[in-house]
Specification:
This protein has nine helices and six strands. With 225 residues, the protein is α/β, with parallel strands linked by helices. The chain starts with 13 loop residues before the first strand and ends in an 11-residue tail after the last strand.
């Protein structure tokens, strides 16, 4: 397993981002997609249909993007069968193993903001009203309870995943500050490795357009079942 200080042994083309709900998987996946020129597939947007009902086409959609050469997505819904489809194809996994106060605070702020503003996420879904959200005790109905329930899931699962998928390079990032330093290092290595002809082309254009593209809306709700 690599740390933030270790250089990547290759430039990845198929990437998974792991972490507990609220750790920032989708935001990081979007940033890496732009940096490495990978198509970002927001897997929550594939799973949830109207009224938060699972889409019957979910696994078919996962198969479709996993068969492509270049993509990045969140490592979720493994209990629904995604590990049999996308994980064997992935080359790199980024594990956001952040302290509990960090992820708890992030999820609280995100959930409260969306609930108060009634922010539309995707397929017409919105976060539940604040009173209903806070009174619910079932993790399937309360995303904060879900985060508590799954708090240690990746620490427990990762050794099993590494044994099951030995081809997968895993980078473990332990704090958002560490992630920012790692991102800066990836940017510096990418620029250092860029051919001179590419640099001249970028100068001619004046500014390089973002390489990655997301097929999911910018707002999301992260919850793996």
């Amino acid at each position: 397993m690599l740390s933030a200080r270790d250089p990547l042994p290759f430039r990845p083309e198929r990437v998974l981002v792991a972490g507990v709900t609220g750790s920032g998987k989708t935001t990081l996946a979007r940033r890496l997609g732009e940096m490495w020129g990978l198509r970002h597939v927001e897997i929550d947007g594939l799973f949830h249909g109207p009224n938060w009902t699972p889409r019957p086409e979910f696994l078919d959609d996962v198969r479709a993007f996993a068969a492509e050469d270049r993509w990045i997505t969140e490592w979720q819904y493994t209990s629904k069968g995604t590990d049999e489809i996308m994980t064997p194809r992935a080359q790199l996994a980024i594990w956001l193993d952040y302290p509990w106060p960090v992820v708890r605070g992030r999820l609280l702020r995100r959930t409260l903001s969306r609930s108060i503003r009634r922010t539309e996420l995707y397929n017409g879904n919105v976060e539940k009203p604040l009173r209903q959200l806070l009174s619910a005790r079932d993790p399937d109905d309360n995303i904060l309870a879900w985060q508590t329930k799954t708090r240690h899931s990746w620490a427990q699962q990762m050794p099993v995943k590494r044994e099951r998928f030995p081809h997968l390079t895993v980078v473990r990032l332990r704090h958002p500050r560490e992630t920012e330093r790692w991102l800066r290092a990836q940017t510096a290595r990418r620029l250092a490795a860029r051919p001179v002809s590419e640099e001249r082309s970028a100068e001619t254009r004046g500014a390089q357009e973002p390489e990655g593209a997301s097929i999911a809306p910018p707002k999301r709700r992260s919850r793996e079942r």
